[in-house]
Write a structure and sequence with these properties.
mainly alpha; 15 helices; two-stranded antiparallel ribbon
Length: about 375
C-alpha cells in the first residue's frame, strides 16, 4: 500500500472520530459529509444569540440593531448607557420576552417531537399525537365560551384563566390516551397512536359543539385565534415557569439518549439490549405531555415545529440522540424565533397567527425531504 493511500485512509478515519469536524456517510453519488454534532451545537448557539439581537430589532417599528444591542448590553451587564428610552421600552419590555418565549416554545416542541418519534417509532409522531392539542383546545374553548377563563370569574380556580383550563384539558386528554393505550395488554406504539387519533376526534367534536352552540361572536373569534397559536401575550412573568419545565425535560432526555436510540430501533432490539420498552415509554410520554401541555396553555397550538424540525436535523446528522437532541432543541428555538418575526411583519399593521406561518414554512420543506430518496427514519 502506497504512502498516499495510507495518508488518505488516516484522514478519513480522523473525520469519523467523534471529536472531528464531521462524519462521512453513504449517499447518492458517493460519500456525503455530516457535520459533527458538537460543531453544530456551537454554531447554533452563536446563531441563536445573533438571532435574538436581530429579531428584537424587527417589527412594525424598526429599531437599529446597534441600538438593540446597546439596550441588551446595558440591561444584562450594566455596561454603557440605556440609549433611547423609546427603544428601551420596545426592545426590553415588549419584544425580548416574546423572542425568548418563542425560543423556549420552539425548543420544547422540537424536543417533544424528537422524543415521541423515537418512543413511538413513528415518523409522523409529534407533540400533539396524544390528543394534547385537541384536549387543550377543548379546555380553552370551555373557559372562553362559558366565562370560566375570565379574571374574577366564579371561584378561585375559575379565575386562573384560559391557560389553566387549556393545561388541564391537555393533561386529561393525554391521560385518557395513555389509559386506553395500556388497557388490556402491554402498551404498544400502534395502540397509543390509534388511541390518540380517537381522543383527538372526540375532543375536536366537543370543541366544535361548544362553538356551534355559543352565543358570543367575540368568544368564537377568541377560540379560533387561540387555536392557531400566538406569542402576543408574552411577558416576563410567563417565562420562568415555561423555561424551567423545558430545561428540566431537556436535561432529563439528554441523559436518556441510549434508551431513545434503543426504542427507535424497535421493541425487540430494545429488549435485546436489556431495556424494557413499556416503563420507559410511559415515562417519556407522560413528561412529553406535561411539557406540551404547558407550552400549549401558554401560547396556543403551534403545529409543525415538533414534526418537521426533528426530521430535518435527523437527515443532517443522523439518528443518534446524543447529538440529535441538542441540535434539534436549538434548531427548534431558531425556527420559531424567525417564524414569529415573519408573523409580525408579513402583514402591515397586523399580526398573523404563528401556526399559519409554521405550517406555510414547514410543509414545503417536509415535502422536499420526502422527495429526497436517501432520507429514512430509524433503520428504514
Amino acid at each position: 500500500m502506497s504512502q498516499d493511500v495510507i495518508e488518505a485512509e488516516r484522514k478519513e478515519r480522523w473525520k469519523e472520530r467523534p471529536g472531528g469536524w464531521g462524519t462521512a456517510r453513504a449517499g447518492r453519488g458517493g460519500r456525503a459529509w455530516r457535520p459533527a454534532p458538537s460543531v453544530l451545537v456551537a454554531a447554533l448557539l452563536l446563531l441563536l444569540a445573533g438571532s435574538v439581537v436581530v429579531s428584537v430589532s424587527i417589527g412594525q417599528v424598526d429599531v437599529p440593531v446597534r441600538d438593540s444591542a446597546r439596550v441588551l448590553l446595558h440591561e444584562l451587564t450594566g455596561i454603557g448607557g440605556p440609549g433611547d428610552p423609546m427603544f428601551m421600552d420596545v426592545v426590553w419590555n415588549i419584544r425580548l420576552p416574546r423572542v425568548l418565549l418563542a425560543a423556549v416554545v420552539g425548543a420544547g416542541l422540537a424536543l417533544c417531537g424528537t422524543v415521541m418519534q423515537a418512543t413511538l417509532q413513528n415518523p409522523l409522531a409529534d407533540p400533539f399525537v396524544l390528543g394534547i392539542s385537541s384536549g387543550a383546545s377543548l379546555g380553552a374553548a370551555f373557559a372562553i365560551l362559558t366565562g370560566f377563563g375570565a379574571a374574577g370569574a366564579v371561584g378561585a380556580v375559575a379565575g386562573l384563566g384560559v391557560p389553566f383550563w387549556a393545561f388541564i384539558g391537555a393533561l386529561a386528554a393525554a391521560a385518557l390516551v395513555l389509559g386506553v393505550g395500556g388497557a388490556g395488554s402491554r402498551t404498544s406504539p400502534v395502540k397509543l397512536i390509534l388511541a390518540g387519533t380517537a381522543v383527538n376526534a372526540l375532543c375536536g367534536a366537543a370543541s366544535s359543539a361548544l362553538v356551534y352552540f355559543a352565543d358570543s361572536a367575540e368568544g368564537v373569534r377568541s377560540v379560533t385565534f387561540w387555536s392557531m397559536g400566538s406569542l402576543a401575550s408574552a411577558e416576563w412573568a410567563t417565562l420562568p415557569a415555561v423555561s424551567t419545565v423545558v430545561l428540566i425535560a431537556t436535561a432529563f432526555f439528554l441523559f436518556r439518549s441510549r434508551v431513545l436510540n434503543a426504542l427507535l430501533m424497535g421493541d425487540e432490539a430494545a429488549v435485546t439490549l436489556g431495556i424494557d420498552p413499556g416503563p420507559h415509554r410511559r415515562i417519556h410520554l407522560v413528561l412529553a405531555a406535561v411539557v406540551t401541555g404547558m407550552l400549549v396553555a401558554t401560547c396556543g397550538i403551534i403545529g409543525f415545529v415538533g414534526l418537521i424540525v426533528p426530521h430535518v436535523v435527523r437527515s443532517a446528522i443522523g439518528p443518534d440522540h446524543r447529538g440529535l437532541l441538542p441540535v434539534a432543541v436549538l434548531s427548534g428555538a431558531l425556527f420559531l424565533i424567525w417564524a414569529d418575526v415573519a408573523a409580525r411583519v408579513v402583514v402591515p399593521n397586523a399580526e398573523l397567527p404563528i401556526g399559519i406561518v409554521t405550517s406555510v414554512l414547514g410543509a414545503p420543506l417536509f415535502l422536499h425531504m420526502l422527495i429526497r430518496k436517501e432520507y429514512g427514519f430509524g433503520d428504514k
